[in-house]
Design brief:
Endonuclease III, domain 1, 12 helices, binds iron/sulfur cluster
Amino acid sequence: MEKSILAAKTFAALRSVIKAPVTELQYTNPYELLVAVLLSAQCTDARVNLVTPALFTRFPDPHALSCVTTAEILPYIQSVTFPNNKAAHLAKLGHVLMEKHGGSIPQSVEEIEKLPGCGHKTAEVVASVAFGIPAFPVDTHVFRVSNRIGLVSGKTVKEVEVQLKALFPKSEWSEGHHLLILHGRYTCKAQNPQCTSCVLATCCAYKAQMDMLPATVVGLKPRLGAYYCADCHQYCNQFIAITDENGLEQGSCPQCGSVHLHHTKTGKTAMKIRDFRV
Ligand code: SF4
């Protein structure tokens, strides 16, 4: 399927099931959004939302944040990931916002990503959500989901961002970012994608590859070996590792060299297909 057709199909299908493609972080102004996004790095939005009400009450603006030390911020964010680093970033953030930006949040990706604790993804999210600047931030969900569907073929976050921006019109970037995040968070999960109930099941490249994997073999005898070769019908306890064209390590039968090995306890194929996680 042509990429542009797949792109249109993907967003139409996701729009039909995701009625509110917006951030799940709770905030009331750009300052609060910036702090919440900074705290959400390698942490869940739900966890961040638990700590921000008290944090925003105590530090309601950049000035309040600039008047305190890391140690005074730390108790408020103790339960998010990397609290020491994030508290230090917030203390510095308050100073920089007061000294360089007059207590306001800068309104460009380039300026936001220069702030303490703010990488490119944080800058794109804040610029897009707070100020309506076209951006397509790529987090772990967007990276995994867009690669799985086949919208992009990128090994790095930067590659995926460039490809997504080329594929969709600017007017769809922000919405697309949220559609892919929410789809990845609730349906196309890293460990256990819910392919059977997914609205993209008929057009997803990853699902198509999964469907081509050999079917489960029943009636195998684990006492004869850990693996069973479906080609030469021999059992073995160890396979020979080979690397396929995707760089994945596959097991091959020590007797005939076939990669059609099955785990004898479950009957499931031992073949792996390429997945996308960062
Ligand atoms: S079909 Fe499966 S892998 Fe593809 S997008 Fe849906 S959940 Fe993800």
